[in-house]
Amino acid sequence: MAPAYALALLLLAPPLSTLPPPPRSTSHYVKGGSPLVSTEEGYVSRKLKLKRMENTREEITRMSRVLAETHRTLRERGGLHSDVKVKNMSKKGLHQVAIALDNLRNSQYVGSIGVGTPPQWVKVIFDTGSANLWIASSRCFSPGCRMHKQYDSLSSSSYRPMPGRIQVKFGTGKIRGLMARDTIRLGNGVEIKNQAFGLITSEDGDVFESIAFSGIFGLAYPKMASMGGTPAFDALITSGSLDVGSFSFYYSDFPHQDSAVFFGPPDPDYYVGSFAYVPVVEHRYWAIGLESVTVSTHPDSNLCYGTCKAVLDTGTSLICGPSGAVRKLLRLLGSSCNIGSLPKLKFKFSAGVTLDLDPKDYIIGLEKESSGCKAGVMPLDVPPPRGPLWVLGDVFLRKYYTLFDRDKNRVGFAKCRSRQSRMQLQNSRKRRLEQDRRLKATARKNFINNTRGSQDLDLYAP
Question: What is the DSSP letter of 115?
Fold first, then answer.
């Protein structure tokens, strides 16, 4: 949806690779297979022919015991570590694509995508409030365009023009452009080939001069797409690049720079506990049922008038609500910047899910002390049948790791893991992996010492 304020703020032996290169020797094999010795490079190379010996029953029994003991020890020590998630390419497809996001003073979270061949990397907002993909073109000479990196279609071998022109209006300006197709790259080399997108040739409005991104990567439902064609995330699902049709966000609190968007399954390093799920009620926005919005000091003052919906919008910086409800909320909160005296905000969603925000979550500008703080809430009136709506933007998403599940049409919430907890978890995992490596090396050594092999060996000795 991207309302106005969004855009405004918006083994054991050393590996062969470690050995010196084979000598440039003039030695030859003589009759009988005995090799001549070369000392040209300072080492001797011999090939020994070994005779196969059948193992006795006792040796086979001992080998079995060694293997059984090794496997049991590994299981007890957790050698596989089920909590370590594979994040690269597998035989079934890509498990997860993680893209780092820059936190621009809690007002915008932007990440890079590659456009074209070879890829031109540009910053975009991954926006659940829209379904369009648009990128500023090098053909755009508006001040807003010139202040950001622009995509040059002439430098891409996979660029294809499309018929038609586009125009998208925002509360603070509008964009115009052409339709095009090209290859879009996400994270670790995942490609969406021949993806349709808007090529922006004009940006009207001062707001575009203050934003820190070159485009929008829309993640809403296809019904929200106004440019035609299949939205990029739907194309990604159709391509089979992901195991699951979902994505999730972790938003850090400035100045910490560890925000990310994850395509595929959620990353447990970034949340604690389990997810609470709420079904999507409208397959346009990521809209879910909202039963009440209350302040902890006034539990009977429901700010959700009639039938309410909440939209989870990563393209909006604040929390937005109907103007009348927001005015009442601000009166209930007062003007204090003492977060110890302020109440909690409670959001009761359908499916019995209630989530709250502490004052430190919804008060912004605390770094300016008492003179500059304010509640991160603003009015936004959306008329029926789309509204009334509460739009939960970055202020809400910084507390809750949010999963957008297209496979099951639901939104999942879990508390964000603290930065300190995540670092402790990662350090613990490194220690366990090192212990496993040592254990496996010892087990392999014991196995070799207790078995008899039958193979030709190349022995290198100094």
Answer: E
Helical pair 57-76 and 419-449, crossing angle rounded to 10 deg = 170
Sort strands 286-295 and 271-283 into parallel, antiparallel or unpaired. antiparallel
Helices (H), 298-381: 323-333, 359-362
313 is a catalytic site residue: yes
Rounded (to 5) percent helix, strand, coil in the chain: 25, 35, 40
Token pair recorded at residue 328? 């009442």
Residues 130, 136, 139: CA angle, nearest 5 degrees? 145
In this predicted structure, the answer to whether residue 72 has a pLDDT above a threshold of 90 is no
Contact 393, 320 (CB under 8 A): yes
Comparing 92-96, 109-113, 268-272, the range with the smallest average pLDDT is 92-96
Predicted TM-score (pTM) of the model is: 0.73
Strands (E), 284-351: 286-295, 308-312, 319-321, 345-349
Q: 189 in the Ramachandran plot: left (φ > 0), alpha (ψ -120 to 50) or beta?
A: left
Which of 189, 268, 186 shows the shortest CA–CA distance to 219? 186
* Of the candidates 246, 240, 170, the residue with the CA atom closest to the CA atom of residue 204: 170
- 110-124, 138-152, 231-245, 413-427 — most confident range: 110-124
Catalytic annotation on 407?
Answer: no
Point out the catalytic residue in the list 234, 267, 313, 394.
313
Q: What percent of the chain has pLDDT over 90?
A: 48
Query: Is there a contact between 456 and 52 (Cβ–Cβ < 8 Å)?
Result: no
Contact 332, 344 (CB under 8 A): no
Contacts 24+ apart (CB under 8 A), 417-424: 417/269, 417/270, 417/271, 417/272, 419/252, 419/256, 419/258, 421/272, 422/258, 422/269, 422/270
Where is pLDDT greater, at 460 or 452? Answer: 452
Residue predicted with more confidence, 136 or 1:
136
